[in-house]
């Protein structure tokens, strides 16, 4: 296939999607690798381009709550309330699917993961289409998610025709995934909407992410991983142990004299967890592509988006 085009042309993206192609699209969280969610053959292409196992289900993207209703059997009160508050935005709902969603999209589960992304280009694109878009993050399976069009091209060049360029993603970590377990709203992946904000809306909820229960459906433990080993927490100790190696470092705001300036990345000098989340994946990529031999990362405050940051670093550190 030819070199992948990066452009802001929504018409071109729509044309390719209508013709059955997969196209990378921007969202507020990370870039997605999108295709017609109602067409099993096209969905199969998504799995192939990503090299993703078929047992790992995809998220379906819609442009409105009305549209979501076309693909789920019921929209329970808790989900409607959260959708009205946080959608479009970085939150995905696991809801009982209608038959128009192919089994391949959900890996045979009777729930579909569905969300309304908050990116003007992608919302306009969805409005032009008469089908929703199935889209996993646009990275090869198991690698760090892309937060810019360039990140996508670095890894999928030649494998897809087109990347819709929506600039850098504002949130930078994937959506929060919420569904039911034992009839109680439960978080299965911490992400762009903080647990505290969800609890402010609907009260105390369960959290069952893969680190707390590795067997949650569709939640794989090792993920978002750079190729270099990543060590999470206790940076001082890591610096002492690996002092003979070229060390890369990801910190919240602190500078470390023991590490070369160009090999350390402070994610937010002003201690803002939103800013840190936005920059996290680009920092992991940068160090992975540099000549450092090992990456040390601080553990972030366990609150707000800090939990999603720690979750991604934790998974990146499983080897
Ligand atoms: O922010 C996001 O959610 C991004 C953008 C592109 O929307 N998408 C994303 O997709 O992160 P992906 O495929 O990388 O992650 C989707 C996660 C996977 O862990 C998958 O196992 C889980 O959602 N998932 C999808 N459908 C599910 C279902 N029915 N039940 C449980 N987990 C599900
Ligand atoms: Mg992913």
Spatial shape:
globular
**Main sheet summary:** 9 strands, mixed
How much of the residues is beta strand, in percent?
15-25%
**CATH fold category name of the largest domain:** DHBP synthase
Number of helices: 11
Strand order of the largest sheet: 2-3-7-4-6-5-9-10-11
Mean pLDDT: 94
- For this structure, what is the CATH class of the largest domain? Alpha Beta
Helical content (DSSP H or I, runs of 4+) = 25-40%
Instruction: Supply the helix-strand structural class.
Output: alpha/beta
Which helices and strands, and how do they pair?
Elements lengths: L4 E3 L2 H9 L4 E3 L6 E5 L3 H11 L8 E3 L3 H4 L8 H10 L4 E6 L6 H4 L4 E5 L4 H9 L4 E2 L14 H8 L5 E3 L11 E6 L2 E6 L5 H8 L3 E2 L22 E3 L2 H7 L5 E5 L12 E3 L6 H17 L4 E4 L8 H11 L3
Parallel strand pairs: 1-8, 4-6, 5-9, 10-11, 12-15, 13-14, 13-15
Antiparallel strand pairs: 2-3, 3-7, 4-7, 5-6, 9-10
Helix pairs in contact: 1-6
Bound molecules: threonylcarbamoyladenylate and magnesium ion.
Magnesium ion binds next to loops.
Structure notes:
The chain has 319 residues and is α/β, with parallel strands linked by helices. The chain folds into 2 domains: 5-75 and 85-170, DHBP synthase, CATH 3.90.870.10; 230-316, Rossmann fold. Helices cover 31% and strands 18% of the residues. It contains 11 helices and 15 strands. It has helices at residues 10-18, 40-50, 65-68, 77-86, 103-106, 120-128, 149-156, 195-202, 235-241, 273-289, 306-316; strands spanning 5-7, 23-25, 32-36, 59-61, 91-96, 111-115, 133-134, 162-164, 176-181, 184-189, 206-207, 230-232, 247-251, 264-266, 294-297. A 9-stranded mixed beta sheet has the order 2-3-7-4-6-5-9-10-11, with helices on both faces. A 4-stranded parallel beta sheet has the order 12-15-13-14, sandwiched between helices. Strand 9 and strand 10 form a beta hairpin. Helix 1 crosses helix 6 (120-128). The longest helix has 17 residues, at 273-289. The two termini are 33 Å apart. Mean pLDDT is 94; it is low at 214-218.
């Amino acid at each position: 296939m030819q070199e992948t085009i990066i452009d802001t042309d929504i018409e071109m993206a729509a044309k390719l999607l209508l013709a059955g192609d997969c196209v990378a699209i921007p969202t507020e969280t990370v870039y997605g690798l999108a295709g017609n969610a109602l067409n099993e053959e096209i969905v199969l292409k998504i799995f192939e381009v990503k090299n993703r196992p078929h047992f790992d289900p995809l998220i379906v993207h819609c442009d409105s709550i009305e549209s979501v209703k076309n693909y789920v059997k019921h929209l329970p009160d808790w989900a409607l309330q959260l959708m009205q508050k946080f959608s479009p935005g970085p939150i995905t709902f696991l809801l009982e699917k209608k038959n128009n969603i192919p089994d391949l999209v959900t890996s045979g589960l009777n729930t579909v993961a569905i969300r309304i992304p908050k990116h003007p280009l992608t919302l306009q694109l969805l409005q032009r289409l008469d089908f929703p878009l199935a889209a996993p993050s646009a990275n090869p399976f198991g690698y760090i998610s892309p937060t810019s069009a360039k990140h996508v091209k670095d890894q999928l060049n030649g494998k897809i025709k087109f990347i819709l360029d929506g600039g850098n993603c504002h949130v930078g970590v994937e959506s929060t995934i919420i569904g039911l377990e034992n009839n109680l709203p439960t978080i299965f992946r911490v992400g762009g909407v903080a647990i505290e904000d969800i609890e402010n809306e609907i009260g105390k909820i369960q959290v069952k992410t893969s680190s707390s229960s590795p067997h949650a459906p569709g939640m794989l433990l090792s993920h978002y991983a750079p190729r270099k080993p990543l060590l999470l927490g206790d940076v001082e100790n890591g610096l002492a142990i690996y002092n003979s190696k070229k060390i890369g470092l990801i910190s919240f705001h602190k500078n470390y004299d023991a590490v070369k300036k160009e090999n350390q990345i402070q994610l937010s000098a002003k201690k803002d967890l939103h800013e840190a989340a936005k920059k996290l994946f680009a920092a992991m990529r940068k160090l992975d592509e540099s000549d450092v031999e090992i990456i040390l990362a601080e553990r972030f405050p366990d609150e707000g988006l800090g939990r999603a940051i720690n979750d991604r670093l934790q998974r990146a550190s499983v080897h």
